[in-house]
Amino acid sequence: MATYLEFIQQNEERDGVRFSWNVWPSSRLEATRMVVPLACLLTPLKERPDLPPVQYEPVLCSRTTCRAILNPLCQVDYRAKLWACNFCFQRNQFPPVYTCISEVNQPAELMPQFSTIEYVIQRGAQYPLIFLYVVDTCLEEDDLQALKESLQMSLSLLPPDALVGLITFGRMVQVHELSCERISKSYVFRGTKDLTAKQIQDMLGLTKPAMPMQQARPGQPQEQPLVSSRFLQPVHKIDMNLTDLLGELQRDPWPVTQGKRPLRSTGVALSIAVGLLEGTFPNTGARIMLFTGGPPTQGPGMVVGDELKVPIRSWHDIEKDNARFMKKATKHYEMLANRTATNGHCIDIYACALDQTGLLEMKCCANLTGGHMVMGDSFNTSLFKQTFQKIFSKDFNGDFRMAFGATLEVKTSRELKVAGAIGPCVSLNVKGPCVSENELGVGGTSQWKICGLDPTSTLGIYFEVVSQHNAPVPQGGRGAIQYVTRYQHSSTQRRIRVTTIARNWADAQSQLRHIEAAFDQEAAAVLMARLGVFRAESEEGPDVLRWLDRQLIRLCQKFGQYNKEDPTSFRLSDSFSLYPQFMFHLRRSPFLQVFNNSPDESSYYRHHFARQDLTQSLIMIQPILYSYSFHGPPEPVLLDSSSILADRILLMDTFFQIVIYLGETIVQWRKAGYQDMPEYENFRHLLQAPLDDAQEILQARFPMPRYINTEHGGSQARFLLSKVNPSQTHNNLYAWGQETGAPILTDDVSLQVFVDHLKKLAVSSAC
Amino acid sequence: MNVNQSAPPVPPFGQPQPVYAGYHQSSYGGQPGSTAPPTPYGAYNGPVPGYQQTLPPGVSRAPPSSEAPPASTAQAPCGQAAYGQFGQGDVQNGPSSTVQMQRFPGSQPFGSVPLAPVVSQPAVLQPYGPPPTSAQVTAQLAGMQISGAVAPALPPVGLGYGPPTSLASASGSFPNSGLYGSYPQGQAPPLSQAQGHLGAQPPQRSAPPQASSFTSPASGGPRMPSMTGPLLPGQGFGGPSVSQPNHVSSPPPQALPPGTQMTGPPGPPPPMHSSQQPGYQLQQNGSFGPARGPQPNYGGPYPGAPTFGSQPGPPQPLPPKRLDPDAIPSPIQVIEDDRNNRGSEPFVTGVRGQVPPLVTTNFLVKDQGNASPRYIRCTSYNIPCTSDMAKQAQVPLAAVIKPLARLPPEEASPYVVDHGESGPLRCNRCKAYMCPFMQFVEGGRRFQCCFCSCINDVPPQYFQHLDHTGKRVDAYDRPELSLGSYEFLATVDYCKNNKFPSPPAFIFMIDVSYNAIRSGLVRLLCEELKSLLDFLPREGGAEESEIRVGFVTYNKVLHFYNVKSSLAQPQMMVVSDVADMFVPLLDGFLVNVSESRAVITSLLDQIPEMFADTRETETVFAPVIQAGMEALKAAECAGKLFLFHTSLPIAEAPGKLKNRDDRKLINTDKEKTLFQPQTGAYQTLAKECVAQGCCVDLFLFPNQYVDVATLSVVPQLTGGSVYKYACFQVENDQERFLSDLRRDVQKLVGFDAVMRVRTSTGIRAVDFFGAFYMSNTTDVELAGLDGDKTVTVEFKHDDRLNEESGALLQCALLYTSCAGQRRLRIHNLALNCCTQLADLYRNCETDTLINYMAKFAYRGVLNSPVKTVRDTLITQCAQILACYRKNCASPSSAGQLILPECMKLLPVYLNCVLKSDVLQPGAEVTTDDRAYVRQLVTSMDVAETNVFFYPRLLPLTKSPIESATEPPAVRASEERLSNGDIYLLENGLNLFLWVGASVQQGVVQSLFSVSSFSQITSGLSVLPVLDNPLSKKVRGLIDSLRAQRSRYMKLIVVKQEDKLEMLFKHFLVEDKSLSGGASYVDFLCHMHKEIRQLLS
């Protein structure tokens, strides 16, 4: 077992890949019976400090339908200077520059440790990165002030040659021209009217080449600035201007009468941003960063009317089909998101408001383009400020942790086909021999576009075994998959990262144990969760839960050891032991439960769930709980109500929240002021320890979690209470009055009940 | 003519006489009465009899005429007399007249036939003076008699002549004498009389103007004698003037003053006049006394005139050939006379139905219960009691209302009455506002509405006891009970949305396309605005204007500017979505000038720089207005847009226009399309503007066709103004543009106004002309209204009027002042009603009539072919005059043209209207010019139309340099120009300085600072500033002329025989125009023919 764990870990570190199954069932039928699909979590740009990119271009298989890239799995004939493609078996000549290779003089891509390798493409023009700020001005004064400061600050974080642009909106949408010297100039659009990209470009004067300039100085046609230069300028040139401009930004001046929401034209603003970039910089790395402080209230993409007495849609309304604007708005934003994706740009959404801001409708903008989605209460919070700052953080090379306009291509050996992907991507609709007809997630293609990604962006990629049962894979045969990610690096280089992996085939009937042992239950849980969440976007919640339950039961039936009709005999091997528990918490998670969450929150949670890597995803599914006490060093404890004890401090990390919870006794001590007494220094340390740990998490996490410092009986303690397994509730009376934990007032089933039930069903022959 | 006349005259006389009587009564009565009070009156009262008497004697009408004079008093008592004389003379003495005619060579040609071309009485008189004219005219027309209304007078004269010799004896004598012999005599008297009347006969004419007033001729018989005496001349002068206003008093004074005046005017004026006048006087003395000084020719002829009498016989033959221009009514003379007669005393409005002095006369007004003529002028101050009468007369009943007219400093602006929360007191039924005509009854507890007769309760807080005359004790303490014009503070009920309005705003919208930049306009404008913004209109003594300002520039797209005071730099906001215009900002767009001064200055500095390199030539237009309107809407205020625009808006946007200028359409049925807007979009837009109280002033700087007809739709419907500067160049047009701009920005404006004209039962306002919008048939909606804008209202009968109670008009204007105060301005006017047509004709005002007719015609061209419109005008005019002739003038030969005293200028003015650019364009007049003028005239007041259609031509070098007064004008005809002189010509829009080819070198030197005529730059627009009396005087005169007009007139120096002279000659409206417009004389003949056709 240990070997598999190590293998898994090693693979993850090297290739950024985690498979649900690390030994693959060799036939389609068997694969289906495994319940959990053959799939992987791929982190295309996983940070690899030890992997310097090579400065040449990859060697491609010459077969036009293959075009796989030379990799360590290929057979090479050094003498003949030939190599055989391991996907299509085509024999290829090495290019002339490879003439001097030999067994001892191998190019990097042939070395086994370079199963993941990155190439830098030297060809092609390099365009600077583009950052287009789209700023809501219908904010409270201090909110706007904070936002302005954040934006001004961000200018110093941008690469100096990056192009930056500014669009502000409220009732109107203003596209600011940045090139003017003295007078600040902006183009204004009505917030209620959607415009085509062409119209927008016409109105911004982007369609006509700057003829006058040319005529005026015929001698220097080369220096003629790009027409778009008026709106997008290199940071270093207009740093001061833009700082001033941001400084002078006013709140939307249109009066808002009592009982009304401000008119906010988010839909049109985004549309204009998209149109602007579409016309000027298609297919170059660009971020549209939308900062909004409330729901769109007019024009296309409006989410709620401006009457305050009509509240914004809730899940209840949606279920009752009572959300009048939702469908139209969603359609609008989807259309925008698709256009943006086509152009290779990405959209970030920074939504800070106490009420919902329409993330439900807008989510696709971030989801489909690989943009960020950040939700906070106010721009004047560290949550937003630090999150925003983190966007511009740099890696060990001093490069921004962002990449643009990526396409991910997946090539498989013949026994496999690609069924789909789930993550911040859109299909490029590239059919090919390796594309399955059955779709899981975004399928029907072997290539996806990921307009914006960072080192943690992770996709779930689902496969299908296609070999028939009667034509098993020869023993010892290996299936191979190659991931080719072409992207624009933040340094504006075009790069290609190639990861080629191989796994053994095994006959499921004869080698089931083998396969079982190679099961990665963490990856499997996350991959199943992604499927579930993906389904939840389009299906009713209960259906998804039922589906999940059924899958779990079937998995237990397949891999459990039990006597029929005897629940007590049920056992699961170690490699499956945690899986039911993940499923239990997943069922309770906000990704599948909408109760107590607004539609926006659900969208927000799901957004992050669909892009974080395995570790983070697991935290999201099953939050981590640490306990601090005088009894020993901090220890992870069960996410269970029994862990809530009076003399403990708990630190819970749900990914979205960091909760520090002081037990009842601790609170009393603190009230008594022991921490200030020198003789109780240890108490002070105890209080401090979780804070320090929390800080550590906060520093590393993107987006910044909500940081909650609460105590026994505090209102915010609900964050903790709602997460823990309700092993003690008001229903199981025996727990009352005991000192072993805190009862949770809920009717939810506890893990114990859940597992009992699961056992019963698994051993039953009925299903 | 005479001959012809003679024949017909007889019968006519009979008829006319009675009419005369009427006349006498009116004008004559007054005047004459004064002069020869008793008699004249007697005559009046008994005019008829008098006439009859005359008649009888007048077997040859002449005799009766003599008597008639008194009767005729009204019209041309004098004139008539004169005419009569003429007519008769002519008729009978055909030859005699001719003789006179002969004298006037020019005339002769005209009046080929010796007909009695009696022109308008007064004016005519002069011409008449030359009785020949009549003769001439007649001659020409053969049948035509120009003799103005006078004609009738003539007869009397004639009559008088015989007997009263002393009297208009002329007339009398004429007839009797049958020939000129009579004339002279007749003339003499007639003049006096005629003048009174007007077109009285030629002789009178000469003197008529002056005399006309005198006309006292009415006094007829009695006077005559006196008249004949030395008085005649004097009377002639004094008489006329006086006569009109105060009959009684006038006569005597007239007599005296007249003489003096007469001489005075002529004397003082340039030598020309003096010479002429003398001539006249001579003539007058000789025959008339009233000699008109006007035309130089006169001098000659006149002298002859006297001769006429003697000559009669011989001259005849020759004269017939041509009508002497001097013999036909002269606007100059009429104006001069009115100035002399009525300029000195204030016009007190207390009496109902008084005809005010002419617009060309400077006079003061004392409001004693009726609105000042500065606010309201009517075509007639005596309205026929029945619609039948009105139809018969065809005299349009119209009022030209200028509700916010500027007053001279000596006159107080209307008092503001604040009735507190209850608001102004109104009639419950017709909603008329409290006014001096309301009758308080039941001890003051109730009042009876003077408009609808409804009895209303007087609210307790308004109660006041009545004195023994039934008048409220506090009548004189309350403006609304004692004055013709006053204002009420409006309560919130009178406000839009029941909210008091916020102060209005001005938005400057500047075209920054290539043309505007290149011509230097933008730079000039921005520079000017910086200082001009300190002079936004303020109300009363306010220290600072309440008006906020905003700025927009545009070409194909619009640029709004945020000039909020807190900004360090203005911010520009571009709106490219012209298809669906909106306002991009609210706060910071409209700002207080003093608060945002720095930002505004910075903006105005930068605008020219920002667009200095622009290559954008396309512009939009409708979206610009839309934007301004939306901005005001967003700010919830009324206001005014100042648009500075250069080119046809061809950019893709609403209101996009095509170049549709097509000269081939002229004189076709499709010509009207040139005046119609290309698209209905602008009307719709205008409607929205009006609803928002958004007034649009448009400054156009076209280099080519811009379709003024369409572009001016919005300004027109929103009560705005259009200014056009073709081929604008900073060097040449800067002064004019800036001056217009300053005035336009600084003038007081009322916003978001609604005007309603209420009338007493019996008549009703049925039609409105001017720059405004109407969404129903009664309310005139004006987004903006300034002191230059005039609304002409036409009335029709819908019932019988009562002679006793007269007819009342109340014009109520609800508006928002510059400071944002909501107010009601009320103007009241009481008119007389008459059962006699003569009363109508005696109380008409030709200038106002022309104003109405021009507007009517100019609106007509939108829907009918221009020719139809012209014909309609001519027909109507002929009908008016024919009706007079038929019903009011004393009998005379059909060959005589007899014009009512008050309307003797109608033909000449009408001719000017007919040959104006709109109705008869010359080759050089562009479609835009026509449309421009068309819309300009639409909101002109009477003074403006007067000078616009009949330009003022002032000789500069004839009068001594020292004289401080404006030189007397001369008639707008090339014949009046002497090549040794320099003339100024102005029509309210243009100003020419014409330099004769043989002007003295010294004059050239002192005016132009060059040594000879040939060195004067033709087309020069500025006179060098030289320190010599002549230069100072001329420049001073130019300045004062400009000051009188609402638009700056750019000076153009025209040299005789120079290319530019063509342009100048276009304004010599008495001459035949190149485009086919008839000369005055020709038209008069034509008119006469028309009339005769109608009569037969």
Automatic annotation (TrEMBL), chain A:
<feature type="domain" description="Gelsolin-like">
    <location>
        <begin position="634"/>
        <end position="720"/>
    </location>
</feature>
<dbReference type="InterPro" id="IPR036174">
    <property type="entry name" value="Znf_Sec23_Sec24_sf"/>
</dbReference>
<dbReference type="InterPro" id="IPR036180">
    <property type="entry name" value="Gelsolin-like_dom_sf"/>
</dbReference>
<keyword id="KW-0963">Cytoplasm</keyword>
<dbReference type="Pfam" id="PF04815">
    <property type="entry name" value="Sec23_helical"/>
</dbReference>
<dbReference type="Pfam" id="PF04811">
    <property type="entry name" value="Sec23_trunk"/>
</dbReference>
<dbReference type="GO" id="GO:0030127">
    <property type="term" value="C:COPII vesicle coat"/>
</dbReference>
<protein>
    <recommendedName>
        <fullName>Protein transport protein SEC23</fullName>
    </recommendedName>
</protein>
<dbReference type="Pfam" id="PF08033">
    <property type="entry name" value="Sec23_BS"/>
</dbReference>
<keyword id="KW-0256">Endoplasmic reticulum</keyword>
<keyword id="KW-0472">Membrane</keyword>
<dbReference type="GO" id="GO:0005789">
    <property type="term" value="C:endoplasmic reticulum membrane"/>
</dbReference>
<keyword id="KW-0479">Metal-binding</keyword>
<dbReference type="InterPro" id="IPR037364">
    <property type="entry name" value="Sec23"/>
</dbReference>
<dbReference type="GO" id="GO:0070971">
    <property type="term" value="C:endoplasmic reticulum exit site"/>
</dbReference>
<dbReference type="GO" id="GO:0006886">
    <property type="term" value="P:intracellular protein transport"/>
</dbReference>
<dbReference type="InterPro" id="IPR036175">
    <property type="entry name" value="Sec23/24_helical_dom_sf"/>
</dbReference>
<dbReference type="Pfam" id="PF00626">
    <property type="entry name" value="Gelsolin"/>
</dbReference>
<keyword id="KW-0968">Cytoplasmic vesicle</keyword>
<feature type="domain" description="Sec23/Sec24 beta-sandwich">
    <location>
        <begin position="403"/>
        <end position="506"/>
    </location>
</feature>
<keyword id="KW-0813">Transport</keyword>
<comment type="similarity">
    <text>Belongs to the SEC23/SEC24 family. SEC23 subfamily.</text>
</comment>
Automatic annotation (TrEMBL), chain B:
<feature type="domain" description="Sec23/Sec24 beta-sandwich">
    <location>
        <begin position="750"/>
        <end position="833"/>
    </location>
</feature>
<dbReference type="GO" id="GO:0090110">
    <property type="term" value="P:COPII-coated vesicle cargo loading"/>
</dbReference>
<comment type="similarity">
    <text>Belongs to the SEC23/SEC24 family. SEC24 subfamily.</text>
</comment>
<dbReference type="InterPro" id="IPR012990">
    <property type="entry name" value="Beta-sandwich_Sec23_24"/>
</dbReference>
<keyword id="KW-0931">ER-Golgi transport</keyword>
<dbReference type="InterPro" id="IPR036180">
    <property type="entry name" value="Gelsolin-like_dom_sf"/>
</dbReference>
<dbReference type="GO" id="GO:0070971">
    <property type="term" value="C:endoplasmic reticulum exit site"/>
</dbReference>
<dbReference type="Pfam" id="PF00626">
    <property type="entry name" value="Gelsolin"/>
</dbReference>
<dbReference type="GO" id="GO:0006886">
    <property type="term" value="P:intracellular protein transport"/>
</dbReference>
<feature type="region of interest" description="Disordered">
    <location>
        <begin position="178"/>
        <end position="329"/>
    </location>
</feature>
<dbReference type="GO" id="GO:0005829">
    <property type="term" value="C:cytosol"/>
</dbReference>
<keyword id="KW-0968">Cytoplasmic vesicle</keyword>
<dbReference type="InterPro" id="IPR006896">
    <property type="entry name" value="Sec23/24_trunk_dom"/>
</dbReference>
<dbReference type="GO" id="GO:0005789">
    <property type="term" value="C:endoplasmic reticulum membrane"/>
</dbReference>
<keyword id="KW-0963">Cytoplasm</keyword>
<dbReference type="InterPro" id="IPR036465">
    <property type="entry name" value="vWFA_dom_sf"/>
</dbReference>
<dbReference type="InterPro" id="IPR050550">
    <property type="entry name" value="SEC23_SEC24_subfamily"/>
</dbReference>
<feature type="domain" description="Sec23/Sec24 trunk">
    <location>
        <begin position="501"/>
        <end position="745"/>
    </location>
</feature>
<dbReference type="Pfam" id="PF04815">
    <property type="entry name" value="Sec23_helical"/>
</dbReference>
<keyword id="KW-0597">Phosphoprotein</keyword>
<keyword id="KW-0256">Endoplasmic reticulum</keyword>
<dbReference type="Pfam" id="PF08033">
    <property type="entry name" value="Sec23_BS"/>
</dbReference>
